[in-house]
Recover the amino acids of this structure.
């Protein structure tokens, strides 16, 4: 079988108990695959009986239910008792493979790492050079080629301003244009990049996104800072939400000015790498122009939402560290990337509202 994987895929190393978060915390459940379920039932090991007691089954789906956000096998040292008692080979597939994921595409399997892991988030966000997509033949056990994804080539072209790169990808893919013509498209965008009076629209989109994100975000110690500022700036209360668009727009503008003057290179690198990560992760989902527009819209709105949370932290503390910036990316991923149902509902909401249009994508990028 042919696999596609980013060149950093094999460089991941789990730091176990030293992790600032944990893949054993912050979820509702941990899926137990059928093969592992049978393995636990067939085992005569004394600890296996404890594992069996923790397995819940609904509609023939097996899972471990987390207790107060912690896996029942995560001990006080934040280490896994299944590994300690029985070895890594007794982990279920979810635990054995995380943060690695694979997706079936039309031209083979796509493998990726998820930024819901803080180690992966740091690996991706701090990367200085463009990543390559390697093509691996598992029958021959060799890497024999690299895959060119034109959108990534444009995203990593640092000779072009960040916003223009992103807008160019949106326009060319939406129009099914030849990527070789992207310079002409870039000139068109440059001439029309000032959407004066429309920049509150992207805040409105991001606000709707953040309301759903807040609901999905677990109230864990790792997320405390994010939850605190979101509750304050989104003005969440029992009656719903007080419209904060104007204040958030002001904050967003101030933070953008700060970034431009004090932290532009780091900010550009992090968001370039984030967008490239999203483009690669969504590649297997895109079959036509509408699919691409939806994924591009969601990616751009998520970018604005992440930057807004960073702005909230920066405004509260007078500064924001790289650790906190990366934490926002990672907690966003952990809340939303692993809930296909909720992510689908969010996308449906934007689609049904008529928001997913190329002009709205461009406004959100360029305003």
């Amino acid at each position: 079988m042919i696999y596609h994987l980013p060149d950093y895929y094999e460089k991941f190393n789990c730091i176990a108990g030293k992790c600032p978060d944990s893949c054993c915390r912050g979820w509702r459940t941990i899926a137990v695959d059928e093969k592992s379920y049978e393995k636990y039932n067939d085992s005569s090991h004394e600890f296996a009986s404890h594992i069996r007691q923790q397995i819940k089954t609904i509609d023939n789906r097996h899972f471990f239910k987390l207790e107060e956000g912690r896996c029942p096998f995560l001990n006080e040292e934040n280490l896994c008792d299944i590994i300690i008692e029985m070895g890594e080979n007794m982990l279920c597939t979810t635990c054995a493979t995380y943060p690695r994921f694979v997706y079936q595409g039309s031209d083979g399997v796509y493998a990726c790492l998820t930024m819901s892991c803080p180690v992966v988030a740091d690996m991706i966000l701090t990367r200085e050079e463009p990543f390559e997509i390697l093509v691996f033949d598992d029958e021959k056990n060799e890497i024999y080629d690299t895959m060119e994804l034109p959108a990534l080539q444009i995203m990593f072209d640092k000779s072009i301003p960040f916003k223009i790169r992103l807008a160019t990808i949106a326009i060319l893919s939406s129009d099914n244009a030849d990527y070789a013509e992207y310079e002409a498209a870039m000139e068109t965008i440059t001439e029309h990049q000032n959407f004066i009076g429309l920049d509150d629209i992207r805040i409105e989109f991001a606000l709707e996104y953040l309301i759903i994100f807040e609901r999905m975000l677990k109230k864990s110690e790792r997320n405390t800072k994010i939850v605190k500022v979101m509750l304050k700036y989104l003005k969440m209360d029992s009656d719903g939400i007080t419209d904060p668009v104007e204040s958030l727009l002001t904050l967003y503008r101030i933070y953008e000015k700060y970034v431009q003057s004090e932290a532009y290179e780091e900010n550009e690198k992090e968001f370039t790498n984030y967008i490239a990560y999203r483009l690669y992760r969504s590649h297997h989902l895109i079959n036509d122009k509408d699919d691409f527009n939806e994924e591009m819209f969601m990616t751009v709105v998520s970018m604005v939402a992440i930057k807004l949370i960073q702005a909230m932290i920066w405004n509260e503390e007078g500064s924001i560290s790289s650790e906190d910036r990366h934490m926002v990316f990672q907690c966003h991923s952990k809340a939303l990337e692993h809930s296909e149902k909720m992510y689908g509902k969010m996308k449906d909401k934007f689609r049904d509202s008529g928001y997913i249009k190329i002009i709205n994508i461009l406004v959100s990028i360029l305003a």
User: Anything to note?
Assistant: The first strand starts at residue 2 and ends at 6.
